[in-house]
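G., the chain you wanted modeled:
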Amino acid sequence: PVSSGASLSDQVHQTPADMFYKPGEAAVINCSHTIDSYDRILWYKHSNGNQMQFLGYMNIKFGTPEPGVKVKINGSANKNDLCTLTVEDLSVSSSAVYFCAARYHSASY
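Predicted structure as tokens:
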């Protein structure tokens, strides 16, 4: 089974809570937030007995998966918008808890 972790914040929302798929299928997990000025969504995977794995992020409207990770990140990271993580070509190793987090993107120029 593929699970999405529950958020401790009432301002970050992730759905669905639980999903069941067959190998080879794709799973879609949704994340949104209601926090002013936050414009980045981070995605993580936690498999049993393993460290948390960073999958990638959405910066405003630009998705950036980590190299070598079979995911797509689409949508928007702005307040009240929807960001989706698509985990492609599911296998036994895809069984995990997936988390999203919202944050403010600060950049120095």
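The CA atoms of residues 34 and 80 lie 5 Å apart.

Shout if anything looks off.
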